[in-house]
Write a structure and sequence with these properties.
The protein is 68% helix and 0% strand. It has 195 residues and is an all-alpha fold. The chain has one domain. Pfam families: DUF2150. InterPro entries: UCP022079.
Length: 195
C-alpha cells in the first residue's frame, strides 16, 4: 500500500459495522421488501468495493499484489464472525457472508490468473451444481469462482440459470455473483441511508 493511499480506501471495518448495527436495530423480516433490500444492500455494498479494486487493478492504478492485499483486507472484515444476539438476524447475515465468499474467490482468481477460458458462465455454474450434488463443495466453489471471472470480464449471468438452481451453497454463491455483476456494470456506492 503506497503512502498516497488513504487507509481502507475501498472498504473499512467501520462501514461493515454500520451495516451490522442497522440490521441489529431494525425489525428484520426476510419476506418484507425493506428488510430484503437492506440485506441485499449490505451484499451489494461489499461487491461494489470488490469491483472497485478490480477496476483499479485493470486500469493499472494498483499492482496485482496490492489488489490481492486489498481483497484480503475486505474479506477479513466481511467474513469475520458477526456479533448479533438475534439468531435469525445472524442466520441472514451468515447467508450474505456465504454469498460473498464466491465474490472474493472470483476476484482473487481473476487477479491471479485472468479469465477462466474453458467454459461459459452457464457451463461453470452447472458444473458447480453437479459438484455440490456430489458433495464436493470445494470443486463447486472453484467452478463458481471461474464463472465469476467471466462475469468480471463482461459476460452475463442469466437470472433464469440462477432460478433453476436447487437451494444450497451454489445458489447462494450465484446470488453473490449476481451482486458482483451489478457492481461491475454500475459501481455506484450504496448509500447507508438513514430512513
Amino acid at each position: 500500500m503506497s503512502d498516497s493511499d488513504p487507509p481502507g480506501t475501498f472498504y473499512t471495518e467501520e462501514r461493515w459495522q454500520n451495516w451490522i448495527e442497522r440490521i441489529d436495530e431494525e425489525e428484520i423480516d426476510p419476506e418484507d421488501e425493506d428488510s430484503a433490500r437492506l440485506l441485499l444492500n449490505l451484499q451489494d455494498d461489499t461487491a461494489i468495493a470488490v469491483a472497485k479494486i478490480i477496476t483499479a487493478y485493470e486500469d493499472g492504478d494498483i499492482e496485482a499484489e496490492a489488489a490481492r492485499e486489498k481483497l484480503e483486507d475486505i474479506r477479513e472484515i466481511v467474513l469475520s464472525e458477526v456479533q448479533l444476539d438475534d439468531e435469525e438476524k445472524l442466520m441472514l447475515v451468515d447467508g450474505v457472508q456465504t454469498s460473498l465468499v464466491c465474490v472474493f474467490y472470483a476476484a482473487e482468481e481473476y487477479v491471479a490468473g485472468g479469465v477462466a477460458e474453458d467454459g461459459s458462465i452457464e457451463e461453470y455454474v452447472r458444473a458447480a451444481a453437479d459438484a455440490e450434488a456430489e458433495e464436493d463443495p470445494d470443486a463447486a466453489l472453484g467452478y463458481c469462482a471461474q464463472a465469476g471471472t467471466r462475469i468480471i470480464d463482461g459476460d452475463e449471468l442469466s437470472m433464469e440459470l440462477a432460478e433453476e438452481l436447487e437451494f444450497g451453497l451454489v445458489a447462494e454463491w450465484v446470488n453473490g455473483l449476481d451482486s458482483l455483476q451489478t457492481a461491475m456494470s454500475d459501481p455506484e456506492v450504496v448509500e447507508e441511508d438513514e430512513d
